[in-house]
């Protein structure tokens, strides 16, 4: 293998790694956003249930 083909392989591996890392980070951000929204929704539901169960004067 010549030097040119090794350079091409190295270039593909480097950019492939960067793209894979970016995709992983975006995936993790999406998961975190879903968890945060679910926690916010459950907290709002708990607050709503607590305010509904309080006796009115």
Keywords:
single chain, 89% helix, 57 residues, mainly alpha
Characterize the main sheet: none
Q: Name the beta content range.
A: under 5%
Let me know the number of strands. 0
Oligomer: single chain
- Nearest-integer average pLDDT: 91
Determine Rg (CA atoms, Å). Answer: 25 Å
Shape: rod-shaped
What percent of residues adopt helix (DSSP H or I)?
over 70%
Unreliable stretches (pLDDT < 50, length at least 5) are none
* Elements, N to C (H/E): H
The CA-CA distance between the termini, in Å, is: 86 Å
Number of helices: 1
Q: What class do helices, strands and sheet pairing give?
A: mainly alpha
Protein model, in words:
With 57 residues, this protein is mostly helical. The protein is built from 1 helix and no strands. The protein starts with a helix and ends with a helix.
Write a concise synopsis of the structure shown.
This protein is mainly alpha-helical and 57 residues long.
Q: Could you outline the blueprint of secondary structure elements for this entry?
A:
Elements: H1 3-53
